[in-house]
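Weekly modeling sync, notes
Attendees: S.R. (lead), two postdocs, one rotation student

Agenda item 3: backlog of single-chain predictions. S.R. asked that every request posted to the team notebook include the full sequence so nobody has to chase files. The rotation student volunteered to paste the first one in as an example of the format we agreed on. Action items at the bottom.

Example entry:
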Amino acid sequence: MFEKVLIANRGEIALRVLRACRELGVRTVAVYSSADADSAVVRLADEAVRIGPAEARRSYLNAAAIIEAARLTGAQAVHPGYGFLSEDADFAEICAENGLTFVGPSPQVMSALSDKATARAWMRRAGLPLPPGSVETLPTVQQAAEVAAEVGYPVIVKAAAGGGGRGMSVVRAPADLPRAYARTRAAAQAAFGDDRVYVERYLTDARHVEVQVLCDGDGNGVHLGTRDCSVQRRHQKLVEEAPAPSLSAATARAIAQAALRGVLAVGFTGAGTVEFLVDDAEQFHFLEINCRIQVEHPVTEMITGVDLVHEQLHIAAGVPLRLRQSDVRLHGVAVECRVNVEDPDRGFAPTPGRLDRFHPPGGPFTRVDTHGHPGYVVGPHYDSLLAKVVVWAPERELALNRLERALDEFDIAGPGVRTTIPFVRRVLDDPAFRKGRYSTGLVDRLLGGTDPPTATTAVPATPTATTATAAATATTSTATTTTVAVADGPAPSRPDQRRK
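Predicted structure, as returned to the notebook:
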């Protein structure tokens, strides 16, 4: 096992990784921006390195600063969490070139799977069913129109390099395709530096079902059952549960086996998630593979008893997979809801501010993953996720009741601060959701059809290292935490070409 791991992230996932490292006797290095100087992970880490200002591009997306922080502190590995650089193949290769173990799959595998068109081709060769549509990308709107006419409307135009629910447009009529095609390409170029797109049939009222997998470097792998993530707003998940409800045992087994077959075919290592769309007839179609720990990983941990971050670290350290498929047993039902600092009544607009009160729930089989605390200031710079409330029960109805009870206990207040808890309560009260008979259209229905998932969202491009850090000065912040400020300077070793 590693002696020291650098955590290249912030917020609740950084704290989650830190706790796993502590439990394994591994020392931790936190990196932080100036906006997160007072965060819990900085306070609890063995060492902390300031890597830049609040702007993510100059801190959590600054690969060079992170590498320099690892060098200065003697870290042996980098855990990227989720988001930021967690699925950046360039960053994984930079880590390798600088003698650091990246906790995740190889740069080559990550590069192949981050390109949705390439991933679709791999999965087709592995025998996984794909939604009707193009396997190759479509450089002209005429080609897109031909595919759309062949598979039938509605269709969805997707960015090949997309991720996180971004870079996609639903098209319901031929007349709308040219504008959606152009808009999606422009958004993809702005967000990912890659304007390639493809078209596939849009499965209305489908369910979003995913499978957690673990694979080692020796070609061994296991799946850990299904999760349902259909409660989404603009492809961003709000409520997740495991196992996926109202899914026959035969279909759940087939999806899980297909997922494992797919990742083993590409030589995947570490913890990953294979995502599918499932229609009313329980026909499932491959969607994408995520090469990182997922936000919703706790629900799988709750029904299997497997600590996924522990397993990530063991696999990255070269330890053969410690589980066989026969060791994986699913017990009960777990449900997670994300508590975002957003106002559902204003289109889920972020509501940053200071938390005057912050008292998470407790009680039997209730887990809260959060970096919040009384006095914490939720800034405008990063994702609005503040906490995840996760519950377990022997059966689904009790799990839902337990989650409602926990949300009733959650006391969050501050000037102007609103959360998604009231909207999650609406989801939990919905009759279709209570019966486990819901789809990705649930949130739109609850919003009265006012928020259809038809728009692409442009986000800042995720850069790799172009500027970096060299000189460092050390100061002491607490008895156990060393803070190192890293200044601008030359970049560390990195590939000449950015992977797309």
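Discussion: group reviewed the output briefly. The longest strand covers residues 221-233.
Action items: rotation student to repeat for the remaining queue; S.R. to check formatting next week.
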